[in-house]
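Re: the 362-residue chain
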Amino acid sequence: MRELKPDSTQGIRPGGPVQTGADGQVPLWRRAVSQRTRDLAWSSLSPPLLSSLPDNAATARLARWPSGVRAAWQAWLAQADPATLPETITELSDHPDHAGSRSLRLGRHAERLLHFALQHAPGIELLAANVPIRRANGHGVQTLGELDVIWRDPAAGETVHWEMAAKFYLMVDGVADRRAFVGPNLVDRLGDKLDHIVRRQLPLGRTAEAQAIVGHAIDRSEVYLLGWLFYRGGVPPPGLDALAIAPDHLHGWWATLDDWMGRASAQAGGPVRWCRLPRADWLSGARMPEADTELAESLHAVLAERFGDAHPDHAWRRDAPVMVCELEPAGPDQPGIWVERSRGFVVPPGWETRAIERARRV
């Protein structure tokens, strides 16, 4: 497979139109006023990262909603009172469950939102969520893993097992396969995550233990993979179809601090402000009051200080990319509100070299 080389001469995505849905409309996970609605819409309605699974995943398939159910769920959610929807991570952190059952990890939160969607989507029956699969052996009881979601399609008479993941990967130059996509902290790779889901998690749905929990066989196990991919300069390179990247996948940009600042300073085309996007807000489109935004020059100074922090205990601050969001006014009917125009990672010095080494590591 040929090497993929993003065009580094292209500008960062700022200034371009936001991605729209298949119907040409701004999707609910971008336009809804409530973040509860936006996050829930993202976790259940945003496009998948992949168009197909690797050839070696013969028994696996990508998740699919029953015909008509997804549209009915979107209509339900668009009319729902946000007060009746699951809380955001930020809200949960203000009053955590004393038993620790309210996990604040982003992936777990996305799963929790999908569970809610399957509970309320017309035409679907949620049977179980986060089900541990345990097996007795000579040393006691071993936990083999956990089934994310089990639901039933009454119309087709099928029971379905979904394994969900919400992931964020940056593509680095010089690597031509799936492992060119690495997590910002360099721990995770897209290829490794797929291997784990396909080889370790999906087969759990075919075990006798899973059948005993459901009461009958699970008809199919599927991969529900959502997320964002980020490209240097913000331009997806040619050849992504060969990597089975979905043509409508969500994508942003990544840049070094100087490259980002240079392009942000040269940008024209209307008022623009910026913000650092905390991990709790990575799922759906950003929306905030002007008081929570800043100018590019101010953000540059903050990031330069962070990446230059020499304190021996602050390596995590120096080495970690920071997701930032470019914002534009929401419109004359919403004064003082700014909404996401693009998003991307500003990476610290040396990050790209470390990322390429990580991507190539077996």
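The chain has one domain: 28-360.
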